[in-house]
C-alpha cells in the first residue's frame, strides 16, 4: 500500500531544531520511550461547573469497555487544555543523538482555548465545531464514515486524539484535537476497489498493545475484503519510499454476494464484531495465537457454538440467523479479555454471546423485550391511540456499564459474567407521517427483564425514512445522545435528587417530579449538513461528550453537564434558547438550525419576558455575548443592531405572536441603537472638525454626555476623559438616549443666556446640536417606517414613522420619541436655532460665521418637520387615553400644534427659506399657511418689479413671478379643493378681490370655476354669476346660481328682485342660444325666477298696505309698534304668535326679503284693515284678500318645497282663515232670530272665508292649469302645524318651538269647537256658494254694463250718421274733407 501524502504536520515543522541531524529511515520504526506519569492534584478529577472549559479525557482501569468502545489506558491522560505540545501528526519518539541518551518530551507554553467555533452554548450543554478537520473533508456533498480514537480509549500514542474518515477512495487519519485545521493529515489510498454505487467501506483505528503504534483496519462493505495495517506510521513511511505491502489482507469467510457490512463494533482483545445486512454476526480477530497479524473470521450463531462445517451449512440453509438486526454492542466480562456481544432486532429480541481472544464463543440465549415495552407504552396512550404501539420497532441500544439512577460519582460497575445488565433502547412507534421516539431503560438479570423507566423524546419530530438514528451513552452516563441525520437529541438518563428540591420539602404529598431534561440541536439540513457518523468520548470531568462527523462541516463536539444536578435546569430557559438562536445562529454562519424545534414548552408570557430582557441587555451591553471594550465603536453598534434584528426575526418566525405592547418596546430598543449609530458618526465628524493643533476641542456630544453622567451616571465609566465617557454612553447608556437628546434644548437655552450675545463657539455648538438632533430623530423615525413589518405592524399605518390612527395607540405606553420632554425640545430647538442665527448674523459678518449660519438655516426646515412628527405622535397617543381629561388635553394640544406649525412655517421666510416652508406646508397639507407663503412670495415679486431695476433683473423677476404662478396652478391639480378653498377664500376676502378674479380667470379659469361651483354657498354668489357670464359663458349655470342666491341667501328685497330678474335674463339668453336643441329642464329653470318674483309681488303689496299706517313714525321701532297697534289687535292674546308677527313685520318694514313661511304668517295673523282714505292710495287697501294672497304666495313657492310642507302650510292658511271670525256669534240663535236668507248672506259677506272664496273665484286663480291650491273644509284643517316635525325646520330651538306649537294647538281647539258645535263645514259651504253667486252676479252686472255701453255707443253712431257727422277716421268730419 502507498500513502497519498506524507505526514508533515505543521506543528512538527515549527518545533523541529534546524541544526538537528537528519532522521534515518529506521528511526520511525523504533518504539517510543515510556512517558512520564502525569502530575495529579486534588482538583484533577473535580467536576466542572460549566461546559466552557476543555474536557479532560477519562483514564479508567484497564479492561473495562462497553458498546464496542476500546478499554481505557492505564496511564492518566491530560485534557486538551493541558497538552504538552506533542506534534499534531506524530507520536513523541526517542531521538538518536550523539552523547548520552536522554528521553523526554519538549515543554512549551500551554495553548489557551481549543480554537473551536462555538455553535451553541448554555448552562447544560455546548456544541462546538472543531477546527482540525482537513479542508478536503469539508467539501460540500462529500460522504464518508468516521471513527475516533482518543486517550480515554486506551490510546498509547501520546496525547493525540485521532480521527479516521473513510471515503470510497481514501482513508484520512488526523489529530482531531488540534487547534487549527490539519493541513497534512495521513492519507491512505483504499487498498481495494470501491465503486461509486457501492456502500462506503469501514475503517477502524486499532490501539497497539504496549506500544504507541496505532493500527488501521479497512473493511469493504460489499466484497468482504479486510486489510490490517499494524502501524499507520510505518505504513505511511514505507508507502512513501517502497512499493511493497505494509498490511495484512484477508476476506470474511462465507461472505455472500448479496450481503453488505452494516457495522463494525470493537470487542477489545476479542477483535471486532461485524453485523451484516443478511442478519449474520461475525467475529473478526486480527492476530493468531502467537500474536502475529492474521485475518480470521467466524460467524456467531444462535444455539450451540462451534458445530463444525456441517452445522454451519445447516444453519445457513435453515435461515436461523436471518433476523432484522438493528445493532450489536459488546462489553467486557473480566480482566482476562473475556467479552460479551449483544445483538438487538427490530422486534426487540436480544441475543448474547460470550467471546474470547482465541475465537471461541458461547451463545447466551434470547430474550424477548417487546411485550414488556408494548404494555408500558400502551398505558401512556388513550384507547383509540394504542394502535400506534403495534408498529413499535427498536432502532438502537447501548449498554450502561454502571447504575445511572442516583449515581453521582465515577464508580465503575462490578465486572463478571453474573453482573446485572442494564441497557437503554431507542424505540419508534406511530405511522410514517407521525413518528414518536422513546428511550427505555431495562435491567436484565438471568432470565428476568425489568423495565426501569421510559422517556419520550418531545424535542424531535423529524423526517420519516431518513438515516437510521444512533444512540450514544458516553461516560459518566448521565446524558444520552440520540443522533439523527438532521439533529442530535440530548436526554438526561440520570434521575434528579428529589430530596434536594425545595418544592418537595414544602409539598411532599402533592409533589410532582420534574420532567427529565431534553433538548435537540438541529442541523441546517436544507443546506446539506447531515450527520454521517458519531462516536462517544470518555471524559473524567463529570461531563458527557460525543463527537459527530457532519457532512460539509467536519467534526462537531457536543458536551453536556449533568442536568439533574439542579432541579431548576430540567429544561433550558427560553431566554437561553433565544440567545443561542440570536448570537450563535443568526449572528454567524452556523450549521445549526435554531428555527426548527419540537413541542414549544414555553408560555407567551415567558417568551415576552425573555424577549424584553434580551433586548434590554443588548441595549445596555449587559450580556456576555457583547463586548464592553470594543476596538471599533462602529462595528460594536452594528453588531448590536444586527443582534436586535436577529432577535425579532427569530422570535416572530418560531414563537407564538407576542402582544403589541411588547413588539413596540422591542422596536423602540432597535430604534435607539439605530439612532446611536448615526450619533456616533456625527460625533466622529464633529471631532474631526473641532480638532485643533494642541488638543481636541469639546463637541456638543461631550457636553451632553457630561450632563447625563452628572444626573444619572454612566455605568462602567471608570475614566474621566471625554472620549472614555462618550464611549461609555454608546456602550452602556443608550437606554437614556431620549434624556440626552431632550437636553439639547436646555443646552441651547444656556448658550443663549450668556452676556454679550452668541459667539462663534456657541454658534458652532448650535450647528452641532441641530445636526445631532436631526440625524438621531430622522434615523429613529425612518428605522420605524422601514422595519415596522418585521415587528408585525402594517407599514401603511405609518406616515414618516408616525402612526396615523389614534386607535393604534390604545394601551401602548408613552413613545420615547414623543415624551413631554422630547415634545418640548422638538418645538423649541428650531426656534432657538433661528434666533441664534439671526442675532449672530446681525453681530458678525465673517466668512466662517456665515457658513455656520447657512448651515443652521439649511437644517431648520428639517428640524421643523421633526417637530411636526413629534407633535402628531404625541397628540395621537394622548387622544387614545381613556380619560376625558387626557382627550381634552389632546384637543388643546392639536390647537397648539396647528398654531405652532403655522408660526414655524411662516418663520422660515424670515431666514430666506420660503421654498422649504412651502414644501413643508405641501407635505402637511397646511393650505392656509401655504396660501400665505405663496401670496407673500408673489406680492414680494410684484413689489420688486415696481422698483427701478435693470432689464436683466426685471427678466429674472418676471421669471420668478411666472414660476410662482405655475406653482399655484400645480397646486390646483395636486390638492384640489383643499388648495382652491384656501387660496380663493383669501383672494376674494381682501380689497384686491377684483384683481384676483381677473388673474384667476386669466390663469386658473377651470380651477376658479370648480371652486365657485364646488360649494353651494359659493355657487350662489354674484362672483360665480360674473365668472359664468364673463369667462365661462355658461348662462344656464349663471342663471340658476343667481336664482338660488336670490332665494336662499339674499335678504334685501330690491337686491333679490334684481338678482331674480338677471337670473331670468341669463336663462332666457341660454334658451335663445340653444333654441335648436334646448337642454332638458331649461323651461323649468326659466319659470323658477318668475315664481319667486310672484312671491316678491305679494310681499310688495303687503308692504304698501302696512306702510301706510306707519308714515308718521319717528323710527323703526315706532313703525313696528304702529303696525302692531293696527294689524295685531286680534292676535295680541297669543304671545308666541304675536312675537312671530312682530318680528316679521319688522323685517317687512326693513325691506328684508321674507321667506314664504314668514310671508304666510304675516298675512294670516294680521288683522284685516281698510284705510280711511282709499282715494289717494287705492293700492294700499287689500280689501280682505290677505288669505288669498297667502295662498297665491304658497302656490308660487310650491314647486320648490317638499309636499308634506306644502300640505301643512295649505292647512295652516285655511285653518287661520276659518277661525278669523267669531262663528259663535254669527251662528247663535239670537243672531238667527228673525233673519232672512238675505240677512244671513249679508253677514257671511263680511267673513274671511267668503272674501277669500270670492277673490279666488273672481280672479280665476283656482281654475289655472298649474294651480296647486285647493279649497279645504274646516274639518280637513284640524291638527295643522301642531306637531314638532311640522315646524322644527324653521324653529330648531325647542324653547322657541314649543310656545308656537301651543298657540297653534289653541287655534286648533277653537276650530275644533266651531266644527263640532257650530257645523262650520256647512257654513263655509254656504260662503263658497254665496261667493260663487256673487261672482256670477258681478259678471252679469259687468256684462250688462258692457252691453249697455255698447248700446250707448251704437246709438251714438246712429245719431252721428243721421246728422251727417262721421266718426274720426272716416273720409270727412263735420262736412270737411
Automatic annotation (TrEMBL):
Residues 1367-1377 have a biased composition (Gly residues). Residues 1-81, 1353-1377 are annotated as: Disordered. GO terms for cellular component: nuclear pore outer ring. Residues 71-81 have a biased composition (Low complexity). One of its GO terms (molecular function) is structural constituent of nuclear pore. Keywords: mRNA transport, Nucleus, Protein transport, Translocation, Transport. InterPro entries: Nucleoporin_Nup133/Nup155_C, Nucleoporin_Nup133/Nup155_N, Nup133-like, WD40/YVTN_repeat-like_dom_sf. Residues 122-557 form the Nucleoporin Nup133/Nup155-like N-terminal domain. The keyword Protein transport applies. The keyword Transport applies. It is found in: Nucleus envelope. Residues 666-1325 form the Nucleoporin Nup133/Nup155-like C-terminal domain. One of its GO terms (biological process) is transcription-dependent tethering of RNA polymerase II gene DNA at nuclear periphery. Belongs to the nucleoporin Nup133 family. This is Nucleoporin Nup133/Nup155-like C-terminal domain-containing protein. It comes from Friedmanniomyces simplex.
Amino acid at each position: 500500500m502507498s500513502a497519498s501524502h506524507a505526514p508533515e504536520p505543521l506543528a512538527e515543522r515549527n518545533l523541529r531544531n534546524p541544526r538537528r541531524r537528519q532522521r534515518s529511515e529506521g528511526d520511525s520504526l523504533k518504539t517510543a520511550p515510556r512517558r512520564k506519569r502525569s502530575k495529579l492534584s486534588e482538583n484533577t478529577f473535580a467536576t466542572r461547573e460549566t461546559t466552557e472549559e476543555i474536557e479532560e479525557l477519562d483514564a479508567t482501569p484497564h479492561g473495562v469497555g462497553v458498546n464496542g468502545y476500546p478499554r481505557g489506558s492505564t496511564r492518566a491522560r491530560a485534557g486538551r487544555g493541558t497538552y504538552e505540545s506533542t506534534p499534531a501528526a506524530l507520536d513523541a519518539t526517542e531521538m538518536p543523538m550523539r552523547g548520552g541518551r536522554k528521553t523526554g518530551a519538549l515543554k512549551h507554553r500551554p495553548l489557551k482555548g481549543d480554537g473551536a467555533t462555538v455553535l451553541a452554548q448554555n448552562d447544560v450543554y455546548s456544541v462546538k465545531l472543531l477546527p482540525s478537520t482537513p479542508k478536503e473533508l469539508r467539501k460540500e456533498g462529500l460522504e464518508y464514515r468516521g471513527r475516533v480514537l482518543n486517550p480515554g480509549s486506551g490510546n498509547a500514542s501520546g496525547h493525540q486524539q485521532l480521527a479516521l474518515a473513510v471515503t470510497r477512495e481514501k482513508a484520512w487519519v488526523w489529530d482531531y484535537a488540534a487547534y487549527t485545521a490539519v493541513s497534512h493529515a495521513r492519507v491512505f489510498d483504499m487498498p481495494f476497489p470501491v465503486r461509486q454505487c457501492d456502500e462506503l467501506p469501514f475503517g477502524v483505528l486499532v490501539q497497539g498493545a504496549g506500544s504507541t503504534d496505532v493500527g488501521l483496519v479497512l473493511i469493504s462493505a460489499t466484497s468482504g475484503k479486510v486489510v490490517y495495517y499494524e502501524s499507520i506510521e510505518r505504513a505511511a513511511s514505507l508507502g512513501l519510499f517502497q512499493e511493497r505491502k505494509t498490511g495484512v489482507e484477508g476476506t470474511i469467510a462465507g461472505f455472500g454476494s448479496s450481503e453488505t457490512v452494516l457495522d463494525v463494533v470493537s470487542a477489545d482483545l476479542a477483535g471486532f464484531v461485524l453485523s451484516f445486512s443478511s442478519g449474520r454476526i461475525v467475529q473478526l480477530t486480527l492476530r493468531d495465537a502467537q500474536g502475529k497479524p492474521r485475518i480470521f473470521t467466524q460467524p456467531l450463531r444462535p444455539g450451540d457454538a462451534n458445530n463444525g462445517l456441517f452445522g454451519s451449512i445447516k444453519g445457513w440453509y435453515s435461515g436461523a440467523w436471518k433476523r432484522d438486526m438493528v445493532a450489536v454492542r459488546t462489553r467486557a466480562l473480566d480482566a482476562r479479555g473475556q467479552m460479551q456481544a449483544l445483538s438487538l432486532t427490530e422486534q426487540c429480541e436480544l441475543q448474547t454471546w460470550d467471546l474470547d481472544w482465541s475465537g471461541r464463543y458461547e451463545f447466551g440465549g434470547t430474550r424477548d423485550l417487546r411485550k414488556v415495552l408494548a404494555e408500558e407504552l400502551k398505558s401512556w396512550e388513550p384507547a383509540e391511540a394504542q394502535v400506534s404501539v403495534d408498529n413499535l420497532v427498536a432502532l438502537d441500544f447501548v449498554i450502561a456499564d454502571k447504575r445511572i439512577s442516583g449515581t453521582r460519582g465515577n464508580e465503575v460497575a462490578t465486572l463478571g459474567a453474573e453482573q446485572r445488565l442494564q441497557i437503554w433502547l431507542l424505540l419508534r412507534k406511530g405511522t410514517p407521517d407521525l413518528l414518536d421516539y422513546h428511550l427505555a431503560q431495562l435491567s436484565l438479570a438471568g432470565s428476568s427483564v425489568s423495565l426501569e423507566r421510559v422517556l419520550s423524546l418531545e424535542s424531535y419530530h423529524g423526517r420519516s425514512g431518513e438515516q437510521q438514528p444512533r444512540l450514544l451513552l458516553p461516560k459518566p452516563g448521565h446524558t444520552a445522545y440520540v443522533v439523527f441525520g438532521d439533529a442530535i437529541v440530548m436526554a438526561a438518563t440520570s434521575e434528579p435528587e428529589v430530596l434536594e428540591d425545595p418544592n418537595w420539602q414544602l409539598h411532599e404529598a402533592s409533589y410532582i417530579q420534574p420532567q427529565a431534561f431534553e433538548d435537540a440541536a438541529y442541523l441546517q439540513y436544507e443546506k446539506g449538513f447531515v450527520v454521517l457518523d458519531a462516536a462517544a468520548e470518555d471524559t473524567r470531568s463529570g461531563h458527557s461528550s460525543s463527537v459527530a462527523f457532519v457532512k460539509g462541516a467536519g467534526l462537531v463536539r457536543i458536551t453536556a453537564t449533568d442536568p439533574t444536578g439542579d432541579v431548576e435546569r430540567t429544561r433550558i430557559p427560553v431566554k437561553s434558547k433565544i440567545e443561542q438562536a440570536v448570537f450563535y445562529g443568526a449572528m454567524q454562519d452556523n450549521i445549526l438550525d435554531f428555527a426548527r424545534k419540537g413541542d414549544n414548552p414555553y408560555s407567551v408570557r415567558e417568551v415576552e419576558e425573555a424577549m424584553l430582557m434580551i433586548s434590554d441587555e443588548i441595549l445596555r451591553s449587559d450580556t456576555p455575548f457583547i463586548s464592553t471594550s470594543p476596538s471599533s465603536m462602529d462595528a460594536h453598534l452594528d453588531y448590536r443592531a444586527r443582534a436586535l434584528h436577529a432577535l425579532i426575526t427569530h422570535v416572530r418566525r418560531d414563537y407564538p405572536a407576542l402582544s403589541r405592547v411588547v413588539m413596540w418596546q422591542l422596536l423602540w430598543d432597535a430604534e435607539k441603537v439605530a439612532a446611536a449609530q448615526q450619533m456616533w458618526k456625527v460625533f466622529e465628524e464633529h471631532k474631526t472638525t473641532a480638532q485643533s493643533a494642541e488638543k481636541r476641542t469639546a463637541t456638543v456630544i461631550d457636553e451632553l454626555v457630561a450632563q447625563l453622567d452628572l444626573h444619572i451616571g454612566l455605568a462602567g465609566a471608570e475614566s474621566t476623559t471625554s472620549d472614555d465617557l462618550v464611549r461609555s454612553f454608546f456602550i452602556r447608556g443608550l437606554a437614556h438616549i431620549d434624556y440626552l437628546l431632550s437636553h439639547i434644548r436646555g443646552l441651547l437655552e444656556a448658550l443663549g443666556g450668556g452676556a454679550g450675545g452668541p459667539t462663534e463657539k456657541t454658534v458652532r455648538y448650535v450647528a452641532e446640536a441641530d445636526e445631532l438632533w436631526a440625524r438621531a430623530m430622522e434615523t429613529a423615525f425612518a428605522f420605524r417606517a422601514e422595519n415596522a413589518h418585521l415587528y408585525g405592524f402594517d407599514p401603511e399605518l405609518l406616515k414618516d414613522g408616525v402612526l396615523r390612527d389614534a386607535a393604534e395607540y390604545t394601551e401602548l405606553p408613552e413613545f420615547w420619541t414623543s415624551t413631554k420632554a422630547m415634545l418640548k425640545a422638538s418645538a423649541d430647538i428650531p426656534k432657538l436655532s433661528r434666533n441664534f442665527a439671526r442675532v449672530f448674523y446681525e453681530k458678525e459678518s465673517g466668512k466662517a460665521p456665515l457658513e455656520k449660519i447657512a448651515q443652521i438655516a439649511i437644517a431648520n426646515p428639517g428640524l421643523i418637520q421633526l417637530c411636526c412628527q413629534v407633535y402628531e405622535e404625541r397628540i395621537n397617543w394622548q387622544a387614545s387615553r381613556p380619560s376625558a381629561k387626557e382627550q381634552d388635553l389632546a384637543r388643546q394640544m392639536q390647537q397648539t400644534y396647528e398654531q405652532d406649525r403655522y408660526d414655524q412655517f411662516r418663520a422660515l421666510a424670515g431666514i430666506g427659506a420660503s421654498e422649504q416652508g412651502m414644501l413643508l406646508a405641501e407635505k402637511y397639507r397646511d393650505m392656509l399657511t401655504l396660501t400665505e407663503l405663496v401670496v407673500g412670495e408673489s406680492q414680494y415679486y410684484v413689489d420688486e418689479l415696481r422698483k427701478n431695476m435693470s432689464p436683466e433683473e426685471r427678466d429674472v423677476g418676471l421669471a420668478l413671478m411666472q414660476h410662482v404662478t405655475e406653482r399655484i396652478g400645480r397646486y390646483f391639480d395636486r390638492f384640489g379643493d383643499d388648495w382652491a378653498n384656501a387660496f380663493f377664500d383669501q383672494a376674494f376676502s381682501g380689497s384686491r378681490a377684483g384683481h384676483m378674479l381677473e388673474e384667476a380667470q386669466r390663469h386658473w379659469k377651470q380651477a376658479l370655476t370648480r371652486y365657485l361651483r364646488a360649494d353651494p354657498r359659493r355657487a350662489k354668489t354674484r362672483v360665480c354669476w360674473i365668472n359664468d357670464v364673463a369667462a365661462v359663458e355658461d348662462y344656464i349655470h349663471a342663471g340658476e346660481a343667481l336664482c338660488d342666491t336670490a332665494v336662499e341667501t339674499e335678504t334685501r328685497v330690491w337686491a333679490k328682485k334684481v338678482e331674480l330678474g338677471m337670473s331670468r335674463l341669463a336663462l332666457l339668453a341660454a334658451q335663445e342660444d340653444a333654441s335648436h336643441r334646448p337642454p332638458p329642464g331649461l323651461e323649468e329653470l326659466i319659470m323658477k325666477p318668475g315664481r319667486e318674483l310672484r312671491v316678491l309681488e305679494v310681499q310688495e303689496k303687503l308692504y304698501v298696505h302696512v306702510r301706510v299706517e306707519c308714515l308718521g313714525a319717528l323710527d323703526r321701532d315706532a313703525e313696528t309698534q304702529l303696525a302692531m297697534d293696527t294689524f295685531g289687535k286680534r292676535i295680541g292674546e297669543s304671545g308666541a304668535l304675536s312675537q312671530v308677527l312682530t318680528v316679521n313685520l319688522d323685517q317687512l318694514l326693513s325691506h328684508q326679503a321674507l321667506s314664504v313661511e314668514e310671508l304666510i304668517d304675516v298675512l294670516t295673523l294680521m288683522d284685516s284693515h281698510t284705510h280711511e282714505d282709499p282715494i289717494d292710495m287705492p293700492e294700499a287697501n287689500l280689501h280682505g284678500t290677505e288669505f288669498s294672497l297667502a295662498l297665491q304666495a304658497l302656490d308660487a313657492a310650491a314647486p320648490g318645497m317638499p309636499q308634506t310642507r306644502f300640505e301643512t302650510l295649505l292647512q295652516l292658511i285655511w285653518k287661520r282663515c276659518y277661525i278669523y271670525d267669531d262663528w259663535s256669534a254669527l251662528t247663535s240663535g239670537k243672531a238667527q232670530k228673525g233673519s232672512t236668507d238675505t240677512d244671513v248672506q249679508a253677514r257671511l259677506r263680511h267673513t274671511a272665508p267668503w272674501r277669500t272664496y270670492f277673490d279666488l273665484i273672481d280672479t280665476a286663480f283656482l281654475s289655472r292649469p298649474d294651480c296647486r291650491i285647493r279649497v279645504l273644509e274646516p274639518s280637513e284643517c284640524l291638527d295643522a302645524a301642531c306637531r314638532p316635525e311640522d315646524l322644527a325646520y324653521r324653529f330648531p330651538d325647542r324653547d322657541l318651538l314649543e310656545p308656537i306649537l301651543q298657540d297653534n294647538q289653541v287655534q286648533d281647539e277653537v276650530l275644533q269647537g266651531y266644527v263640532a258645535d257650530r257645523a262650520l263645514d256647512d257654513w263655509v259651504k254656504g260662503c263658497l256658494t254665496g261667493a260663487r253667486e256673487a261672482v256670477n252676479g258681478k259678471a252679469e252686472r259687468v256684462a250688462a254694463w258692457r252691453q249697455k255701453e255698447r248700446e250707448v255707443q251704437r246709438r251714438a253712431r246712429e245719431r252721428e250718421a243721421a246728422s251727417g257727422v262721421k266718426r274720426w277716421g272716416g273720409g270727412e268730419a263735420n262736412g270737411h274733407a
